[in-house]
């Protein structure tokens, strides 16, 4: 809510590049519940199932950079 009140246009939640654990769905859902801004979530999302869970929790965009890099190499 603070970001929204400060005039931010989106919320970016990132567990870090190559994170071992993604941001929990419960945390994403809590932010989604209290914020009307678009939510971008990244870090630790390695499977289609985890990407689906992240979207289902309220993420508008899912960042899967390292997972894609592994497929391409």
Low-confidence stretches: none
Number of helices: 4
- Along the chain, the helix and strand elements come as HEHEHEH
Share of residues in helices: 40-55%
Q: Strand fraction band?
A: 15-25%
> Strands across the major sheet, in which order?
1-2-3
By helix and strand content, what is the structural category? Answer: alpha/beta
- Sum up the overall morphology in one term: elongated
Distance between the termini: 40 Å
Summarize the structure in short.
The protein is α/β, with parallel strands linked by helices and 73 residues long. It has helices spanning 2-5, 25-34, 48-57, 65-72; strands at residues 11-14, 39-42, 61-63. The chain has a domain at 39-73.
Describe, in plain words, how this protein is organized in 3D.
The chain is of the alpha/beta class and 73 residues long. The protein has a domain at 39-73. 44% of the residues lie in helices and 15% in strands. The protein has helices spanning 2-5, 25-34, 48-57, 65-72, and strands spanning 11-14, 39-42, 61-63. It has a three-stranded parallel sheet, covered by helices on one side. Strand 2 (39-42), helix 3 (48-57) and strand 3 form a beta-alpha-beta unit. Helix 2 runs parallel beside helix 3 (48-57). The longest helix is centred in the middle third of the chain and has 10 residues, at 25-34. The protein is elongated, with a radius of gyration of 13 Å. The mean pLDDT is 89.
């Amino acid at each position: 809510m603070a970001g929204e009140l400060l005039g931010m246009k989106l919320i970016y939640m990132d567990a870090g590049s190559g994170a071992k654990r993604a941001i929990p769905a419960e945390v994403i859902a809590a932010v989604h519940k209290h914020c009307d801004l678009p939510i971008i979530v990244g870090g630790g999302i390695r499977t289609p199932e985890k990407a689906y869970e992240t979207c289902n929790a309220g993420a508008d965009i899912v960042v899967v950079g390292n997972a894609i890099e592994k497929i391409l190499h």
